[in-house]
Structures are given as C-alpha cells and as structure tokens.
Amino acid sequence: MKSQRPVNLDLRTIKLPITAYTSIIHRVSGVILFVGVAIMLLALDASLSSEEGFAEVKAYLSSPLVKLIVWGLLSALLYHLVAGIRHLIMDAGHGETLEGGKLGSKIVIAVSVVLILLAGVWIW
Predict the structure, then answer these.
(1) What CA–CA distance (Å, rounded) separates 95 from 72?
(2) Could you tell me how far CA 16 lies from the centroid of its own chain?
(3) DSSP code of residue 53
(4) What is the pLDDT of residue 89?
(5) Which top CATH class is 18-123?
(6) Which of 55, 61, 75, 118 is the most buried if burial means most Cβ atoms within 10 Å?
(7) Residue 120, exposed/middle/buried by CB under 10 A (0-12, 13-18, 19+)?
(8) HEC states along 60-117?
(9) Cβ–Cβ under 8 Å, residues 86 and 107
(10) Those residues with Cβ within 8 angstroms of residue 71's Cβ, 6 or more apart along the chain or in another chain
(11) Main role (predicted)?
(12) DSSP-assigned letter for residue 12
C-alpha cells in the first residue's frame, strides 16, 4: 500500500513543543543518572576501602574535569527531580491541559536552571 502522506526526514526542521523537549531531557537525565550512579558507587567503594583510597578519591575530586563531571551528574539529578515532581503534580490532576503542560514545562526549566547554577556555585 502506497502512502500519500508527506515524509519529513530532516530532524533539523521539525518543530517540537516545549513539553516534548522537557520530556526528552527528562528521559536523557534518567539515563545519565543510571550511568552516574555506577561511577559514584565505584568512587564510594574506593574511598571506603582504605585511607589511601580515600586520599586518592579526594585528590580526583579536586580536579576541574572531575568537578565538571560531578556538576553534570548533579545537574541531571536536579533536572530529573524537578521534572519528576511536575509529573507527580500532573498525576494528581493539576496542569493536564495543553496550557498547563506548557506552563509546567517552563516552570521546570526555570527552576532547574536556577538549581543547576546554584549547584555549580556550590561545587566550584
């Protein structure tokens, strides 16, 4: 069967609503957290194994690259937390309309940006 519908395969021209972007970022932040938890558990294991391990992990954590990675993991955690709270609020029946969803997405982005910047200040 031949479909007469237009097919747009150029992803750069597709305009997604803000709710789609917040949903996609929520999923990506979940994947980042999944990987990040493994990394942080390895660091925790190394730091608890001995005094030398603790000193080694402490030395790594003073590195600018590691600080950037930790900030990235903390950013993913904060965004995922804020977006998850939005989902819980929507599950309770608030903000389920199109306008409510758009407003909720804008609030998620605004609150996340503020929290991520504060986390960056705290880490650096």
Answers:
(1) 29
(2) 19
(3) H
(4) 96
(5) mainly alpha
(6) 75
(7) middle
(8) HHCCHHHHHHHHHHHHHHHHHHHHHHHHHHHHCCCCCCHHHHHHHHHHHHHHHHHHHH
(9) yes
(10) 119, 120, 123, 124
(11) Membrane-anchoring subunit of succinate dehydrogenase (SDH).
(12) G
The residue whose two tokens read 């979940």 is 30
According to the model, what pLDDT value does residue 4 have? Answer: 77
Which residue, 118, 26, 40, is CA-closest to 73?
40
How would you classify residue 93: left for phi > 0, otherwise alpha for psi between -120 and 50, otherwise beta? left
Q: Which amino acid is at 121?
A: V
Q: Phi/psi at 28 (nearest 5 deg)? A: -65, -40
Contacts of 108 (CB under 8 A, 6+ apart): 22, 79, 82, 83, 86
Question: H or E element: which one contains 23?
Answer: helix 18-49
Give the pLDDT confidence score for residue 53 in this predicted structure. 96
Query: Domain spans of the chain?
Result: 18-123
Per-residue pLDDT of the chain in tens (124 residues, 90 and over written 9) = 677 777 777 777 888 899 999 999 999 999 999 999 999 999 999 999 999 999 999 999 999 999 999 999 999 999 999 999 999 999 999 999 999 999 999 999 999 999 999 999 999 8
